[in-house]
Amino acid sequence: QVQLVESGGGLVQPGGSLRLSCAASRFTFGINVMGWFRQSPGKEREFVAAISYSGYNTYYQDSVKGRCTISRDNAKNTVYLQMDSLKPEDTAVYYCAADRGMGSSGSLRSPTFYDYWGQGTQVTVSS
Question: What is the DSSP letter of 108?
Fold first, then answer.
């Protein structure tokens, strides 16, 4: 089973920046699409961004488009999320997700598309 470990979360003031990282390990099959989701208390898990294996295709939630950049380094089995101009409404636990590339269906903007999840990293945007 793939293990995903997120890092880079923390407390930041509005307008600040954070760079989240997610490293994958303990897998026997390759991973395909990787994505980032976030969840606040009492809310459903929300899609933030995703990236294809090659990095050629990227996808963003409209609310973060222009403020976030997703990238990956396959040599390091790592996906990144650079977040700039952060707002209080960006406060959430951010989760990394990975698709094994076998048997996935539906939209990559849906949590059900993914096979593996990290434990999450807290991002708090506050003055």
Answer: T
At 103, list the tokens.
């048997």
Q: Which of 120, 94, 127, 92 is nearest to 12 (CA)?
A: 127
CB 108 within 8 A of CB 50: yes
91 phi and psi, to 5 degrees? Answer: -60, 125
Neighbours of 72 (CB within 10 A): 21
Please give the Cα distance from 92 to 30 (Å, whole number). 29
Instruction: Enter the tokens of residue 96.
Output: 């990394």
DSSP 45-77: -EEEEEE-TTS--EEE-TTTBTTEEEEEEGGGT
Residues comprising the chain, all counted: 127
Backbone angles phi, psi at 51, to 5 degrees: -145, 140
pLDDT for 43-77, tens place per residue?
A: 999 999 999 989 999 999 999 999 999 999 988 88
- Round to whole Å and give the CA distance between 85 and 106: 31
Structure tokens given for 54:
């090659």
Structure tokens at 82: 């650079």
